Amino acid sequence: MSDGAKGKVAGSVLARVPKATFRAHIADGLRAAILNGDIEPGAQLVETALADQFGVSRGPLREAMRQLIDEGLLIAVPYTGTHVVGLSVDDVREIYSMRVTLEIFAFEQIWARRDQAFRQGLVARRDALTACIDAEDDAASIVAELQLHGFVYEATGHKLLIRTWDSIRGRLQLYWAAHHRAHGIRGPRRDGHDRYVEMALSDDFDTLKSEITDHMARGGRQTEDFLRGREARAAAQSP
Hints:
Blueprint: H1 22-35, E1 44-45, H2 47-54, H3 58-71, E2 74-77, E3 81-84, H4 89-110, H5 116-134, H6 138-156, H7 159-183, H8 194-200, H9 205-217, H10 220-237
Antiparallel strand pairs: 1-3, 2-3
Helix pairs in contact: 1-3, 1-6, 4-6, 4-7, 4-9, 4-10, 5-6, 6-7, 7-10, 8-9
């Protein structure tokens, strides 16, 4: 993003909002702008420009930015301001390796306790994701995909595991956004999680483990190529 564009995106993304819902709308608008690529990983957010874009004071804007810091999408860097979390090829590889391990462990914890409520909850979240995909709402589909995969962590009740999952959610959202742009799509494949859900509700844990590994690896190389290309273009534009 150019210096003149830092912290500023199209008005259709960051529209003026009702006073009663400043923080929530600002957080939603910023999140969508980040996940849609209007504000790129590593970009600095300039409070004055964003406040003017939203037509709000800096108070509610800062509250919304703090929310996205808590979500892991933004990071406050001492003496330099607030930035979108960066995303590199190494980040993608680390996220992939950690997610495989975490998700298999989560299913190990819950496997013998998958009752009807678990089954209904997992299917409901898959259906919610499908609805977002059908609506071609990429930012909403990323959040819905996060909620689908997060369901097994929540179901374990394992506090340390849930905190670890929460700690990678922001980077994971950025990974998915990059993955979608690498494929030129507006969300994951409509049937991309059907087998994941089917195996999660099956009696074959070994096949589920294989599906988790394969599911998370799909498109990984293309996403890495997308990030390498972006890094190469940025280097070429540097003086």
